[in-house]
Amino acid sequence: MIAEVKQKALSFFAPPKALKVSEHADEYRRLSPEASPEPGRWNTDRAPYQREIMDAFNDPDVHTVVMMSSAQVGKSEIVLNLMLYFAEHDPSPMLIVQPTLDIAEAFSKDRAATMVRDTPVLSGIIADAKSRDSGNTLLHKKFPGGHWTLAGANSPTGLRSRPVRIVLFDEVDGYLDSAGADGDPVTLGVKRTNNFWNRKIGLFSTPTIKGMSRIEAAYEESDKRKCYVPCPHCGHEQTLEWERVVYDDGKPETAAYACEKCGVLIEESHKLEMLSQKQWVATAEFKGIAGFHINELYSPWKKWSEVVEDYLKAKGNPEREKAWWNTSMGLSWEDKDGELLVADVLQARRESWRELMLPAETVLLTAGVDVQDDRLEAVLLGWAQNGQCLSAARRVFEGSPAFPQVWQTLDEWLLAERQTETGGFLKIRAACVDSGGHHTNEVYTFCTARYGRDIYAIKGVDGPKPIWPDRASKSRKYRGHKVWRIGVDTVKDMLRARLAVVEGPGRIRFAADLSPEFFEQLTVERRVVKYDRRGRPVRSWVKKSGARNEAWDCMVYGFAALEALQRLKFVKLATVSPPAPREPQPEKKAARRERRVKRRSFGVKR
């Protein structure tokens, strides 16, 4: 009896049981109902490929772990398990970096806070944020031996505030090139770990564009581990690749996987059995960086038939295809844009319709306007419910923008109705006018007076910026006018991809009377990758020397005008109804005009 009591007393002074990250999560982690479709006790065997990724943080020879993955593979849960481990089992100061400060705050409230609430070992060491002197704020949570500090990659303050042993970069391909004026956010975050001999760095993300992807570059520097699973029929070990997914044409429910050795079809029902026997195999030399690549075909939460269904929905639409490769296959999008598009090929795609008789499927019109020293140029774009773009017209309004006459002519063109083949009539719903150049004030005056008609003064911004910003700029620089700073390079990427599509919802169609010059101007810019002073790849658009590109710019602004309607007016093309047929009534229109003239002559306001 005395020996038993003595043994129990001594157990209080024993070191904690050595646990790896995955073992610790299995024992202590609880999934919250708000954040998981499977709330309750964590079980790594649910997605066995996660075990080695988490346990790499316990390997003393590994200083950096890279996870390049698709969506639906539990990446965020791995980050949370690491936060749990280095708070409760191996207390350490930690920095968790999200793409923006807003996302960091949402992650703290929606994911970290619910994990603290539902995981007993955490609720015992992290005080409630509402308690006095808790050391617990939305972005900074203390615990004995360390803390969680959450930061946005766009906020230099959070990245340079304090030394940390563990830094986790989540969705690094969503980071800006620089955190304010301080430089690369990943470099800033890594510098916070310099004082720790046992530091650990984690980078997690779905990739984006080949040659520009942070996570792909990090993975290429790693030992590039791939997940091999055995064929249930012949035992051959292989990675799961999209090219070997087979299905009957148009029937995603028939999806199966063809073994690369025996060719026998593997059914979805074999997936969990295969995953339980998986092996991670390094395919490059190990230099302290453990790299893991995993795609959605491995996910226990995503059926192969669903992956196929997503692919079929994306097929033919360049933007959706890019997103599918990134988020389903965990692969960067390889944009084969080294050469220019051929103007003659685009011109050969002209159809028989014209500006004043648009195709029946046209449901909405936008316009883009470019301002030159001696003229205004505009392009009219039509839009179908399936997202097809109909390039309907290009107009040049001669005259200096310093004088009101040229603006009046433009305004009349913007107000004009266009008829569709079904007898309906459409007006331009939105237009973007470039405010750069030598006639900025005239652009501001014109657009501000017509803001109620969704005529926007815009300024193009280079680099990986959103097409349409969250809010307009309204500083003293703009004299109180609203100016929208649009991501022109982002629009050009999308536009270039669409020009290469010849069938399907992503294609751009052309009216019969568009001139050869119009198509020449669509093909004078190309996308190149250069390297800045730090050796980082920077993608930009360059124009042929001496070539004109007003039509290209106008197309960009017309695309941005549609984005403005979607962001500001919540317009969805798929729900916009085609215009109802309306018989022209010239006599009634003439009578109305005559009455208006008489009223004005007597000083009667309309």
Which consecutive residue ranges, at least 5 long each, have pLDDT under 50?
Answer: 599-606
Strand content: 15-25%
**Number of structurally distinct domains:** 2
Q: What structural class is derived from the secondary structure elements?
A: alpha/beta
Overall mean confidence score, pLDDT: 88
Q: Helix tally?
A: 19
Kindly report the CATH topology of the largest domain.
Rossmann fold
Write the layout of secondary structure elements.
Layout: H1 2-11, H2 21-28, E1 30-31, E2 40-41, H3 50-55, E3 64-69, H4 75-88, E4 93-98, H5 101-118, H6 120-123, E5 140-143, E6 146-152, H7 156-159, E7 166-170, H8 185-191, E8 200-205, H9 214-220, E9 225-230, E10 237-238, E11 245-248, E12 251-258, E13 265-266, H10 271-276, E14 279-282, E15 289-294, H11 304-314, H12 318-327, H13 343-347, E16 357-358, E17 362-371, E18 375-384, E19 389-398, H14 404-415, E20 418-420, E21 425-426, E22 428-434, H15 440-449, E23 455-461, E24 484-487, H16 488-499, E25 508-510, H17 516-521, E26 525-531, E27 537-543, H18 550-568, H19 586-601
Parallel strand pairs: 3-8, 3-15, 4-6, 4-7, 7-8, 9-15, 16-20, 17-22, 19-25, 22-23, 23-24
Antiparallel strand pairs: 1-2, 5-6, 9-10, 9-14, 11-12, 12-13, 17-18, 18-19, 20-21, 26-27
Helix pairs in contact: 2-4, 11-12, 16-18
